[in-house]
Design a protein that fits this description.
- The protein has 6 helices and 10 strands.
- By secondary structure, it is α/β, with parallel strands linked by helices.
- Strands 1-3-2-4-10-7-9-8 form an 8-stranded mixed β-sheet, with helices on both faces. It has a two-stranded antiparallel ribbon with strand order 5-6.
- The longest helix is centred in the C-terminal third of the chain and has 21 residues.
- It is globular.
- The N terminus is likely disordered.
């Protein structure tokens, strides 16, 4: 993907072995509305945009053998630009290094140390290995699955701001739907096995995923966005297009504005 110029200051950190994190305490169901007593000044609202995966742990491989980390980095930077352009001046892009587990704990630790007001993690989707089919792309053996497509949003009930997280996820899901996008429906199906998750909002595609470290252990509201399926051959092409990237970035900006106004 082509690089883009950005005005954000990425936060680069080295990985460290922090061992196993303490289990998060169980949280009860909460009302679906950000706390009315809290205010939001966009200029001071500290948004951490987490680039999913690292250069060492690159995430999924696309149908055309590109790594997820590159998709994530490009889209996250664009979202950061959009958020700054609509007034969220304190937005920061978080890029970590290292292997998966250590990196997850490191990024949560950084966000908490920075007293983030919101944590948004950006990813691109694939499918379980059992669903993959083989094909050849540019002379190389590749894998694909055209069976499913679409974005999805995840929140954790273990997050101390579950209600606020769910409220933002619904706002973003609505913006994406209004932009003509469809969410991924497979996560509620039995065939997903251990990747199956409860569907909290069947209209806009918000799922509950309590075990995700970046959602359950952050002290701020937190949402994970799977922006689209890069293992689906058609959607991979769409995810590489400036039009789709701009649509998603604009949707995040509009959703964050609406979320801030409701606080």
């Amino acid at each position: 993907m082509a690089a883009i110029a950005v005005s954000l200051i990425p936060i680069f950190v080295s990985s460290a072995d922090h061992g196993q994190a303490a289990g998060a305490r169980k949280a009860g169901r909460a009302k679906i509305k950000p706390p009315a007593s809290e205010t939001c000044d966009p200029r001071k609202f500290r948004i951490i945009l987490d680039v999913g995966h690292t250069s060492e742990s690159q995430g999924a491989t696309s149908a055309r053998n590109d790594v997820e980390f590159g998709f994530n980095l490009h889209l996250t930077r664009l979202i950061g630009e959009r958020l700054k352009s609509v007034g969220f001046a304190a937005t920061r892009v978080l890029v970590t290094e290292g292997k998966a587990r250590a990196s997850l704990l490191k990024r949560v630790g950084i966000a908490n140390a920075m007293h983030a007001d919101f944590f948004l993690s950006i990813h691109h989707d694939s499918v379980p290995d059992k669903m993959l089919e083989e094909w050849e792309f540019e002379g190389a053996k590749s894998h694909f699955s055209d069976r499913f497509s679409g974005h999805s949003l995840f929140v954790s009930e273990r997050n101390p701001h579950f209600a606020a997280s769910l409220a933002f996820a619904r706002l973003l899901g609505r913006q994406l739907k209004d932009g003509g996008l469809q969410y991924a429906t497979q996560y509620s199906l039995p065939l997903m096995g251990r990747y199956r998750h409860p569907l909290l909002d069947k209209d806009v595609g918000v799922y509950r995923y309590d075990g995700l470290v970046v959602l359950s252990q952050t002290r701020s509201a937190a949402v994970l966005l799977e922006a689209g399926s890069i293992i689906n051959r058609d959607e991979e092409m769409a995810m590489n297009s400036p039009e789709r990237q701009e649509l998603i970035a604009t949707a995040v900006g509009a959703a964050m504005r609406a979320y801030c106004e409701k606080r």
